[in-house]
Write a structure and sequence with these properties.
The protein is mainly alpha-helical. It has one domain. 0% of the residues are buried.
Length: 72
């Protein structure tokens, strides 16, 4: 095998390894960002539900609050 062919194969392999490592790092960063966003969204929904339930109980609409709790 000629030296140029070996160099091309070595370069191709090296670039492939670097691309795989970079892709894995990028995927982990995206996963972390998506998990943070999902947690934030869950917190927002929880606070919204808390506000709605407090409003229902403070205005004496406990039946509405119960319906909201048992709603799927």
């Amino acid at each position: 095998m000629k030296l140029s062919a070996r160099l091309i194969l070595l370069l191709t392999f090296s670039v492939s390894v670097v691309m795989v490592v970079a892709s894995l790092i990028t995927l982990r960063q995206r996963e972390a960002a998506l998990l943070d966003a999902a947690r934030d969204e869950a917190r927002v929904h929880a606070v919204t539900l808390q506000i709605a339930l407090e409003e229902d109980y403070l205005t004496g609409r406990s039946l509405d609050a119960q319906r909201l709790i048992y709603r799927r």
